[in-house]
Amino acid sequence: MNRHHIFGLRRPRLLRPTIPLTENLSAALLGLLLFALVAWAMSTGNDYDPTERDLPIELQISNARDIAIYTPPLKPWVDPARPVIAGALDLAPYPADILDAEWQPVGRVKRFQAANLFEKINGEAEKFIKQGFVELAYLLLRSNRDDSEIAIELFDQGDLAGSLGVFAEHAAGRNVEESGGVSFFITSAGVIGRVDRYFFRAAGDRGSDAITTKALALVNTFSELSPRAGGAPADGQGTAELPVGFALFHQRLGIPEKDIQFQEENVFQYDFARQFWFADAGIDPEARLFLHIAEDATAAEALINALLAEQRYDYEDVASQGGVSILRHRFLKTYFVVTREDQLVFGLEGLPDSEAAADWLARIRKGLSDEQT
Amino acid sequence: MNRPKPNRPKYYPHADYRGDYLSRRDLLKRALLLGGASAAGLYLAYAPEDRPWSRRDFSGLRGMPEETPFQLPDFRVAPADPAVAVGIGRGGSPREMLLKALDALGGLGRFVQPGDVVLIKPNVAFDRSPNLGATTNPALIDTLVRLLLVDARAAEVRVADNPIESPADCFAKSGIGAAAEQAGGRVYLPDANAFEPLYTPGAKLIEQWAFFKRPFKDVTKVIGVAPAKDHNLCHASLGIKNWYGLLGGRRNQFHQDIHEIVSDLSIMIRPTLSIVDGTRVLMEGGPTGGDPANVRDGDAILVGLDPVATDAWAYEHLLLRPGRLPDYLYMAEQKGSGMINYAGRIRVVT
Amino acid sequence: MKRFKQRLARLRLAQRLGQLPGLLKKRLPGLPAEPLREQANRRLRLTNVRILSQVLFFALFMLAVWATWTSRLGGYPVSGLLELDPLVLISTFLATGYVYKLLGWGLIIIAVTFLFGRVFCNWMCPFGTLHQFVGWLFDRRPAAERIRLNRYHPAQYIKYSILIVFLLMSAMGALQIGLLDPIVMMYRAMATFVSPISDATVDGVGAAAEGMGGGVQWLDALKFAPGTDSRIFVGSFWIGALFLFFVLMNLWQPRFFCRFVCPLGALLGTLASKSLFRINRIVDRCTDCNLCLQRCEGASDPQSQLRQAECFSCMNCIDDCPENALEFTLLRQDKKQVLPYPDLSRRQVVFAGALGLIAAPALRNNGRVNDENFSAAMIRPPGSVEEAEFLERCIKCDQCLNVCPTNVLQPATLAEGGFEALWTPVMNFRIGHCQLKCNLCSEVCPTGAIRRISVAEKLGEGRYAEQGPVRLGTAFFDLGRCLPWANQIPCVVCEEVCPVAPKAIQTYDEEAKDVFGQMVVLNKPFIVPDLCIGCGICEAECPVQDQPAVYVTAVGESRSDNRKLLLRSRTPARPI
Known about the structure:
By secondary structure, chain A is α+β, with helices and mostly antiparallel strands. Helices cover 29% and strands 24% of the residues of chain A.
């Protein structure tokens, strides 16, 4: 053995003297079997079909389910140093300039519907819901001057009637002013008012100057909601579709909005008298025009009869001519005039004397006929 | 005892015969050998770095692997009518639409001469079946390869892409591998040795980057065939983005500045033709797709000489997106790859 | 000295020239040649057929390994040798109680062994062929030394002990025969050790050829995994080391593995004890020259009482006997000249039995194979059965690693599953990902550790819609490393490459002014675990590549009820 040899190749020497025939035959047979095996193995080969290892198209299509994915919208950049600009916060329905450099929102605008209104204003909720309440928007502002806070509630009462009605309940006996379509009165720590179909209340946490200034500023802000100023009219209510009573008093008779009220129910303290429009006639602080639109003439007839019947407990008949009934209060000596035309019941109450009544009634009749023409 | 007396120097009293002692000649030979080896070693190790054959590396930087980037030639061919930059074929099978679009530009023979070696770059990025719209329509590849080999008499047609997933699987499942080979083309799959650094002058992000070089050897014409897809990050994956598939290395970094890289791609390669395949447009959920409900038939095939205009038209008419085009088109226009305003430069054949 | 060498050379030349007439007699026409009949008689010997058989089975084995690739798989019986392996059949049957798919082929070899003895070891086994070839190639020993080394060695009992230990462990639910089974070891070493080295060599040749301007398409046929980046297998060094250790031990002891270690050999030896055919020594003709031991492969002592359990039926002794005293026969067997059963003492059996009984619980007690302390990295291929059942079936043949087109399957290290799961397949999503519509690993698994699933089952479509897709795990974000979340740098590669529809990665989109005053649109990704199938492409493509910002862990894998993450899916269209 040479230590430098890498391989140990040596020729094998066949020492065996004889090889029997059976061995030759079996060797040949085995050789053939081996080649057959190899041939078979090779023949099983490449029937590779890539779609075999893919999802059949029918399954792809039939299972193209819509798993709905919610993608939140792009969150815009809000510079932490500068005050919040209107566009960054969803302020609807408040006008954008309710915020300014001094007054910044605390939290976001909270909105309440009829179902959860009680969560916010508890017992009061019924009052608003009866008057056609749609939605309350609530926003809390804080002053960065003296940390005072003002809470602003904006009620969408659905239509003018609702807004007028609600405001009338709040404004009873108050000195109502008007500015830019907004009827309002200032309270000790805020302002209460209405514009178009909205009713708003703003209340500060203290009676400070800042709050008073802001309250007045709010009036200006809310005037933007007035239709005249470009505020969006209520659904389905264009300027042509103002309620009849309001249109009569405001447009035909020229009575300012702040002097018009609406009462939903319990008019004159009677449960059968509902949905009366009132207007301040300007004759007397206590005197008011009133108007009711009944469903039809029969209902109007029934109403006026019932009204007269009840009023006669406190009032006494003075005159009754041409469908116009004039009554005088037994004690207060104020006059109550009422008449009926078709399905309309209208008149005046609280008059100091009955001279102006005829005049006003004529004017109302004229206004109604104008409308009809 | 007839041996000659050895010329024995007096230093070797024990020597019997000539071979036993170190003769002068031996000594000289040995000294020369040692001296030469030492001198060579000293030279290699200490000669200043700029001398020839110097192996000195003082700073340690000489030993770093050197990359010698190559540059791609400009594959563009001047069109018959310079006013027409994009030919659009509508109505019919993919083959018919492709022929219409090519006719609008003057025919394929204008761009591919007999004997050309043509490389087709389809989008084979995912192992999606063709109906899902994430890859190029294999029928279009089949048509194009046959047109090139038979009508234009190209010498060789190669089909290559560097997919994100397993190359063999992507080519198989998308049907493009089989389509290319049955039509007579040759598919090039990427492996570790197929990439070399490419030098793109003027590119911001990929001035030098690993590029799928192997299929480009001896190529004279390059045609990109891209599907029209929505893309979450850059809003659309059309003709220009298709060239992303030739990049190697860690190309996933580029998503940090996706519009810059796509506009760089428009100057990295100047193809002969940019084809956008509008037969299956992936409207949503791109670029991977996976829901056949998101695929619509755009009924159009665009062949463009101006990749920017091609993409602009495809964005508006295939993906049906109004408004501002993706940023990369404006950046590509600024880099001089084309013009977005395609008014008057397209020819639609229905 | 020089003159001496010259004289020697002259002598050798004369010798060769003297042989020339004899050589010429065989080659040149016209001169009387050896008659064809005699040539045929000499050449058609069982030893020659045996060599042919070894070569062909080795070639078939190499074909199987070569064809285990995505573009070649077709219909070839690539797991054929594993399915023929009776030890795989018996141990999986003991472990699971059932015979999976084609494992019944093992009965063919058992039948052949009952007929002809341990022919498998020297006619079919590719590992045996490799040992024999290496031993023969580098063996420079003189005949006397070879005779000495080929005598039966008492240590040859060890393989029976190993077999007993393994079979007892299998019966107790820990299938470890794959560590030492020869076919399995060949497959595993070829897949993880030899094929990457071979491919790297071919790549090197290809690179050199390309550099010189040559074409390289034809080289793809020589590669085991063409058309993709060079593959790596973590821990393949030890797989190769074990493999090479056994192969190189042949230089010290011929057929070291086959005689001393191989459990399959031990099984076949036990079954061969009563085989019909065997080597028979005709005592009357035998002169006790011991020349039959020169090339005896099995060290079965043909020169005295044949140890039937050790004999490989290599037929070498028949060729070496000058007296024709040995034959391979059914009839005329001399019962006095055979020791049929393995030489195993009762003590050895008992010790092996004891070791086998404690080994399985000892390994399980090590604490990695349970539902409390399982490794987060123990992510199994799609179609795998639950872990305890997996370890009853996986023979660590690593065919799944060989066929995987993205190189994501790796041999498990001790960290992932302890010793029990060593070298079983796990996914390493830094290297690759599980391709959505690929089920190749489940196709090649011979024992059902990875149950055969269709693509529809993997994706939970068609009639599998109620059980939902196969989930390998769930992806999670490391928000401290994710570029949009932590650094205000736009990126969203993970969302882009997520293959399911709708995507399991959704984003919160946000405009932000980053630290350098640039306005950027950040898409901040988050995982929807109801949709995530754990394919890992997000981890593979995440640019924070050393410790990816999105990574998949094993929790939520659908194969195990005890490793669920979510109680239910929030979208009924994609159930969990």
